[in-house]
Amino acid sequence: MHFTASLLFIGLACAFSSAWAYPYPDPREIVNLQPEPLAYAPNFDVPLHRVRRQFQLNGGGGGSPKQGFDLSLNGRAPVWQSPNGRHSFDATGSYAQHLGGPYGNSRPQWGAGGVYTFRF
Questions:
Q1: What does the alpha-carbon distance between residue 84 and residue 48 come to, in Å, rounded to a whole number?
Q2: Pick from 43, 42, 120, 56: which is nearest to 94 by CA?
Q3: Which of 15, 46, 99, 103 satisfies CB 3.0 to 4.6 Å to 41 for a cystine?
Q4: Is the pLDDT of residue 47 over 80?
Q5: Could you tell me the sign of the dihedral formed by the alpha carbons of 77, 80, 82, 88, in that order?
Q6: Starting at the edge strand that comes first in sequence, how are the strands of the sheet with 87-99 ordered?
Q7: How far apart are CA 46 and CA 86, in angstroms?
Q8: Among 74, 71, 102, which Cα is nearest to 90's?
Q9: Residue 17 CB-density burial (10 A; 0-12 exposed, 13-18 middle, 19+ buried)
Q10: What is the pTM of this model?
Q11: Structure confidence by residue, pLDDT tens digits, 2-12
């Protein structure tokens, strides 16, 4: 009997403590009937936060006088962006070459391409 009563007391204490920890308001006391604005725009026609995209140029290189030097350059430029900012296309280009060393200069390596981006 004592064991059953203590379990009942513990169960009631847990029920009341959870009610105090997470109180729900009475629906009759809610004054503001307007819903809170959403943090995102579910309507695709509404522009999202647009990021200003800029031209990027990256370069690198390294080596030694005995072995020669490696040189590389990469570039990326914005070409097109949709009005709502979800779709964009960038053009890319690259250049790389080995200079000096026991085998001399290599032929330059050129590259070009494009990057399509869709933002969810």
A1: 6
A2: 56
A3: 46
A4: no
A5: negative
A6: 56-64, 68-81, 87-99, 109-118
A7: 11
A8: 74
A9: exposed
A10: 0.54
A11: 445 554 555 55
| DSSP letter, residue 28 | G
The DSSP annotation for 40-101 comes to S--STTS--PPP----EEEEEEEEETTTEEEEEEEEEEEEEE-TTSSEEEEEEEEEEEEESS
R_g of the chain, CA atoms, integer Å: 32
In the chain, what are the domain boundaries?
Answer: 54-120
Rounded CA-CA distance 87/120 in Å is 10
Q: What is the DSSP letter of 102?
A: T
Q: Per-residue b/e over 49-83, b at no fewer than 16 CB within 10 Å?
A: eeeeeeeeeeeeeeeeeeebebeeeebbeeeebee
